[in-house]
Amino acid sequence: MPARLHNNIAALFAPKAVCVLGASRDPAKIGHVLLRNILRAGYPGKIFPINPCADKILGLDSLRKPADIPGECRPLCLAVICLPAEQVPEALCELGRLPTRAAVIIGAGFSESGERGVELEEKLAAIARDFEIALLGPNSVGLCVAASSLNATFVEGGLLPGYTGFFSQSGAFAAAMFDWAADKNFGFSSFVSLGGKVSLDESDMLAYLADDPHTKVIVGYIEDVSDGPKFLRCAHSATRKKPVILFKAGRGDGSFTGSPGMRVSQDLAYDAAFTQTGVIRAKEIQDIFGMAQAFSFCSLPVGPALGVVGNGGRIGAVAADSCLETGLVLAHFSDKTIERLETCLPSYVSARNPVDLMARATAARFAGACAAVLEDPAVNSMLLFAAASARGELDGLPHAVSSLPNPEKKPILACLMGGAGVSQARRRFFECGIPCYPFPEPAIKSLAAMYRQSLWKDNHMPVEIGYRHDKRRARAAIEQAAAEHLLELSGYYALEVLSAYEIPCLDAKLARTEAEAVQIARHCGGPVALKIASPHILRKGETAGAALNLEDPDEVRAAFADIASRTGPERGQANISGCIVQAMAPKNARELVLAFNRHNSFGPVLLFGLRGYIRLFDDLSCRLAPLSLDDAGDMLREVRAFPVLAGLDGQEPVKLTALEDILLILSQIAVDFPEIQELECNPVLADPSGANVWGARILLSPAALENLR
Amino acid sequence: MPARLHNNIAALFAPKAVCVLGASRDPAKIGHVLLRNILRAGYPGKIFPINPCADKILGLDSLRKPADIPGECRPLCLAVICLPAEQVPEALCELGRLPTRAAVIIGAGFSESGERGVELEEKLAAIARDFEIALLGPNSVGLCVAASSLNATFVEGGLLPGYTGFFSQSGAFAAAMFDWAADKNFGFSSFVSLGGKVSLDESDMLAYLADDPHTKVIVGYIEDVSDGPKFLRCAHSATRKKPVILFKAGRGDGSFTGSPGMRVSQDLAYDAAFTQTGVIRAKEIQDIFGMAQAFSFCSLPVGPALGVVGNGGRIGAVAADSCLETGLVLAHFSDKTIERLETCLPSYVSARNPVDLMARATAARFAGACAAVLEDPAVNSMLLFAAASARGELDGLPHAVSSLPNPEKKPILACLMGGAGVSQARRRFFECGIPCYPFPEPAIKSLAAMYRQSLWKDNHMPVEIGYRHDKRRARAAIEQAAAEHLLELSGYYALEVLSAYEIPCLDAKLARTEAEAVQIARHCGGPVALKIASPHILRKGETAGAALNLEDPDEVRAAFADIASRTGPERGQANISGCIVQAMAPKNARELVLAFNRHNSFGPVLLFGLRGYIRLFDDLSCRLAPLSLDDAGDMLREVRAFPVLAGLDGQEPVKLTALEDILLILSQIAVDFPEIQELECNPVLADPSGANVWGARILLSPAALENLR
After folding, report:
1. Same domain, B9 and B53
2. CB-CB: which of B171, B387, B644 is closest to A359?
3. What is the distance in angstroms between the CA of the first residue and the CA of the last residue of chain A?
4. Could you give the angle at which helices A115-131 and A88-97 cross, rounded to 10 degrees?
5. How far is the alpha carbon of B252 from chain A, nearest alpha carbon, in Å?
6. Model confidence, pTM
7. Residue A47: which domain range?
């Protein structure tokens, strides 16, 4: 991003003046509601309604046109544009010439409304680029910035200040979040509706909010990513500074091509992008709300051990059930903690985790037990569960718990199930900075996300490895295939590309005579297979016209003669060039798929899985290129079938480093050859001594092919 | 259940009089709160406070003792007991002698408080049994019955009448549900806190509520099931009449024993019990609330096709994402529907499912689009999604939508995200009988559960098959093993049991001479394996001291001699009895596990899975015995690895009926031999021609063994 644009984004969030183009005296018009909201939120700078016909709007002097804005206010002025779509480009140009450098376009009628709208958006993008305007929208609900006392949205109500920096690609979702937050007294540092993203997008928000001192956690709702590499850079940098929680709609959108088992949803690329940049993905919409609370109120837990204190009997077990699925564990209390708990509890109750304080527990009993649990060094976080039956006692609970000594800032979350009977206590928990949930499961989910974030922060820096390779040889193979008008390369050409990058491939050699066949077979070392020469590798299990398991020279000779005689005349070929001789698959080898495919936003996506598990269980791991060494290791370990590689039932493990190498080299090929749309090594046979590619397929992108010709 | 007890349960739900033992003038006492709640709810029958010291309580004449209740009121009187635990048995006896036949014990201090409490509970159970008292509790929060205008709980607030019959084993959860419902104006036909279940339990509630004309859907929270067979009977009968939704806490409780891959959670038995009886399992606590609304307001959808109408742009895609995971599908609109939608929509918007009415859609536009979607024959249900931005229009929406013609009663669900801005519209949806959710995912989950329920209702009756078997021969093998003090049977004895039930087992015969070995090998038909005689079956892959893949008589003879010479002297055995000769495993056979284990509440649980997938993916299906033919078929098809059986990549499918037979026979063995704790056929080799048990292990229950000796 140019440095000046970055400054202009600052003007968006902290303008010295605000002008509203299309300000109106009609309370039904958005241009009125917006001006009213700005006034109500107490924006301290100058406010200029702009309307060619009105003199005064909402008590303010109205200007006729942007050029009437006093010169000293112009550069750091935020322009809020509530004009009909057709008028916007002209107005934006006028603003740009002033110069005004930050604008938000509220109105609709752009690309969502057909071709004409698409043209308008292209114009806006060009204007914003030329004048380096920090431009939000079109179709934005507006933005709020607590530190600037700015509410430039047309949503009813107002927002409280808080620690969450929020952005949303969907105006509907932004409005819902606004309304929810007002209801819950949940506050924001910044609240931004991105709208149509002709200029500023989610990546710009990540970059800005990461350095915004008022923002403790970044939360976003996106439907796509405008610029993959930019997103990756901004997200990776932001998550090192603060937690980033994103929800992405459209899990079912599109799928990658590939062999049948590999037709997986393109949404996997988002999983990979989020995983590699440390973004926490909210899986359900409600998770956004739950996690925003937890992250903005609490410090991160330093470990997975949870203490549960409640009066809900076995409902504590529900929290324990959720732990099972999230990577958290129930803490083992120390003897000292158990002693302390026993003083809080009736004599007949055992002091174990989850702690059950019994139905009619007092606030004092709660506080005593919470203190004991919180002080146990084995406890990293605490969930407080209170049922409505303890009602009278509930209202005092938030203050009692938030006053407990908690020098290590262990996160405390509360769960209160019910309705009106718990609503006051819920509000108080909020006021005391303790997030409070209506059910145990979302509380545990949020805590688990916080724990993962703490692991991410402690993550060391990635290691990258360069491999020896002959790029020119690989390019020659691709160009030769292109010259033959091949879009899909298998066999010889695919092998050539892999071999040029020193990926170990099945040794398959052409024997033109029986004697050559015997010689090659000897070189292979074990039993071999023979098949008629063709540029295709013999896939495991593919036996037509082939002789398998040949152990001695006589067998090889006989097979050669047989294949040559059988296949030659029948196929009517004048020149039989010979037989391909190759080693048989090692026994107990495991069959894998290592591949990459290309995603529209994120570019090359590496895929890894075990054949036979991918299709049945979607058991696939996924990372974006370029891979680091850690990424490659994680890809292997992340599939659920990993124990098959690591050696089940005393079986010897396969050589994992050989697989990491192949993944890393594929990553490099993906980067080196943008013209390769898709590369699938399938099967790759791995055993304790190494890994070999037994079959491979390369798909060139038609566009790239055009260029090569 | 004895017929009289059934009548007495009716007295619990529709008492002609109510007495409160331990009624109190002190507003802090439960005995006061309870009496006050009964009065406030307007119970029309006689109310008798009972207190040895007071004359008047809350304006009512107080009786000194139960015997003072007038004779004509006694039999159909409900006694609410708010006495200290120690006094309860005596009081219950007194009531029983009156005779009073329905009682609820509110107080705590029973089994949860130690040994003395356990004794008290045993006494209560005996008294209830002797007098056939319909007894709730102890430790109950009480019960509410709308049709009787009865609120005999100590919870603050009151409940509205509705269609949901609710019970909870947890008092804390009951209180939370009560509070939530009061807040949401959600009503109940009956609301029952089961408490300690010394007498009445979840099964009794299912039996009663299934026939209760005021109840349209049954919802329950349980922590365990008191009596497995009783539950199965009651649940199966109830779900044929109305939907039953249960949440069970404690997913991680206990695991079955078995070989390493088979150590799965005992909670699986609940999954099986719910599946086989048609109970809908709520996986998260919030699902209870969401599903209760949907089932009590809506009719069931007749198919999976959903129409989505909303103004939230791509948020509709979130609903579509959820459909992917639940078995619902997005409906394909007819041309007529698309035409009609186009008249509701701006010209530039395409009319596809999910329908996006654009941000500022009016109530009229919503209604028009909903009418079109609802009338499309391809649509089975509709989700209406409205974002807060359409606020002014939202409040009119519930009435507009609920007034649409809907002759087929297709279920309509609504989703409104936000806070105060949507709360009025949410309430109105409720009042119009349209369930309304704060997020799209729970709405889709509820709809999916309704669709599954509609399938269950249409389910035909199960088919049971009797198989030929020789029970006496199986019993003899078990007794012989018992005589040898074997708890675990493998090899010969296990085979004997399976063979007695005509389960096909690997043919493994003892050859005492080379000649015999050759003869047996010839009989096997294909390549054979030889191993030293032992009562254990040769497992596939087990090669120590064995010769494999012997194809001709010479090889067999040589192997026999070799094994006899090699193994005999080394092991120092005086009598080498010979070699076991058995067929080699067929090529391309698939390796399966078919087993049963025993659950404390539900008895024998059948388990099925493919080796290699069970451990890695928990890919196991589970049903309770006795199995029906459909159950057996479902077990095979339910595992995710089923395509491996059905034939991946053109592979021939295995003979599924052979596997169904084995499962059905195992079910029969489980029923016939309660002394078998666990039986595992592992591996079972299946191919297109049939299935054979290649290894089996039977674990006897120590108690049963004791009896056999």
Report:
1. yes
2. B171
3. 35
4. 0
5. 6
6. 0.85
7. 3-238
